Amino acid sequence: MAKVTVRYWAAAKAAAQVAEEPYEAATLAQALDAVRERHPGELTRVLKRCSFLIDGDPVGMREHETVRLADGGTVEVLPPFAGG
Fold this sequence. Notes:
Pfam families: ThiS. With 84 residues, this protein is an alpha+beta fold. Helices cover 29% and strands 29% of the residues. A hairpin with a 2-residue loop joins strand 3 (51-54) and strand 4.
């Protein structure tokens, strides 16, 4: 398992009530499962609309189970933003 930092932005940050927190997970899917377990409710709903960056790289349409996480890495949780 990799130790990663999950960072929340905008609506995700408001729903989590923290800016970031540590998790241990091998894949993005495992990290998001742990996030949902820790924050049931509004954050779970917000995650359905989010995009994700892993160490600065967009996940895009890749299956979350296939996205490996590196020890010391960062998962950015990005809800849709209004404006430009």
